[in-house]
Amino acid sequence: MGELFGTDGVRGIANIMLTPELAFKLGRAGASCLKEKVDGKGIVVGRDTRISGDMLEAALSSGICSIGMNVYKAGIMPTPGVAFLTRTLGAVAGAVISASHNPINDNGIKFFSSRGFKLPDELEERIEELVVTGENNLPRPTGKEIGRIIEVRNAQDKYIDYIKENTGVDLNGMKIVLDCAYGAAYSIAPRVFSELGAEVIVLHAEPDGSKINVNCGSTNTRIVQNTVVAIGADIGLAFDGDADRVIAVDETGKIVDGDKMLAILARDLLLKRKLHDNIVVATVMSNLGLEKALEEMGIRLIRTKVGDRYVLEEMLSRGALLGGEQSGHIIFLEYNTTGDGIITATSILRIMREREKTLSELVGNFKEFPQLLVNVPVSSKNGWEEDGEIKKVINELEAILKDRGRLLVRPSGTEPVLRIMAEGMDENELQILVDRLAKIIKTRMG
Q1: 416: number of Cβ within 10 Å
Q2: pTM of the prediction?
Q3: What is the fold, at CATH topology level, of the domain defined by 371-445?
Q4: Active site residues
Q5: Domain 256-341+358-363 fold
Q6: pLDDT tens per residue across span 113-138
Q7: How many CB atoms lie within 10 A of CB 79?
Q8: pLDDT in tens, 370-426
Q9: Which residues have CB under 8 Å from 288's CB, separation 6+?
């Protein structure tokens, strides 16, 4: 990764790091590179509800038009909805303005290829190179050759119809609590589940960019959990700001995260003989419990680096149908080319209906191993892997855990911190080990 692009596009504090000037340059550079790859015109642009979205949408769109490409304006649209529209409209590419689950002040820009997949590293590096070295050398057409901004009519309807036709299930008699996180799913999610017949109790469903992800959504499920129990709902569903991930809540109020949902979906695909090569892809952060649950079903878990882009790359290389992250970012290639919170939710509900089981019954005896996550602030994220003292402690701790657990150290993609993850059978032991490693990292790198 370069200086601009992380694991999920360009992201930072809007109007400080991610300025309208930078968005304009990204529009020009991105349109130029993507136009070279595909013969045609038009980039779909969608965004979440963040206040800075208007500013960045205008700047990004202007940059695209200045190259001579049209912008297909989708408005407020979940990230997977933009991927869907990019494919179905025959666009050159898609662009999403969102910082997903991040705080209000943040925003981001990420591109999709014409097939609806996130761009490979080498293409993002080419875009970044153009931005850094000066996109002023790129073409500047005039007159009729300048791009136009064209509003996509009924953009939300197109996406909703696709979900209902491909993953829909009769939800009559079911009571569902939805938390839309004041984000991109605020209108679409309630419509989908209502039109499928469910009684829907909606939380945080106003398009209020000043509240997006604040004490709500997939990163804070407390209100959904309490509401499910209080009203006797069948399930709770909490989306993040751009609705590419979902965290479920069972009828007892317990969280069902991405690992548990992957196990449920994998079992269903296995029974239907649709799980290619009996593999599921997840990241190194997925709990050992997922690995054990899949092993018992005869399914192999393939792990990747953190980031859904790496999950997707591994899925495509192996022909896998299912992959995802513990955070609820599930990629189901039968239906979409990126994580899709609403499709994940409708798929889980379909299984509940077909098996005539509650969500807690589908989770079953999934054993979740204790997992500790610690962020250690550092002055630089570089060089820790070559530090002899840090390597020595890591080796000693891994020897202590042996085959009883795992230890992982990785730099954050967005913050000046090193993240430590320890997993095993004894939480007290893990705490001692993590504290020891955090202390040496802080001493050496702080």
Answers
A1: 14
A2: 0.91
A3: TATA-Binding Protein (3.30.310)
A4: 100
A5: Alpha-D-Glucose-1,6-Bisphosphate; Chain A, domain 3 (3.40.120)
A6: 999 999 988 999 999 999 988 877 88
A7: 31
A8: 999 899 999 888 889 998 999 999 999 999 988 788 899 988 866 788 999 999 888
A9: 369, 405, 406, 423
